[in-house]
Structure prediction request, 130 residues.
Amino acid sequence: MKALFRSIYELIGAPQPPADTPVYRDVVFPNIGLLNIGISLALVVIFYYVINRMMGVATFNKGRHWAIFLVLNALIAFGIAIGQAHAQQVTDHSYIYWLATWNAILGLFWFFIFSLILRKGSTNASTTPF
Prediction:
């Protein structure tokens, strides 16, 4: 699992400063990767199954509502990366913000993929986002 997240998160470059590389590879990358996937899945489930199926909110099924959840997911993913880096007490470096931006982009990707997979189970938003 560590190797998978290492390969995904090191697409933007090696962690900086080099002294913190083991912390990123062993702790930060797996933590933010699993949290990103889990939160993306949770937000998709909330949008499609809680709001648009169980609650039956017929007016919350438009593309703009889906986009709100998409952006919310990206913001959470950005914050998680910064929070995890600071929790592990890595050296404050601009790499943290590049990592957070990359994590937000990956959050957008995971949310979109989970939306394609899970949208058919929704009664009100089965055609959202398209």
Observations:
- The chain has four helices and no strands.
- The CA atoms of residues 41 and 114 lie 6 Å apart.
- The mean pLDDT is 92.
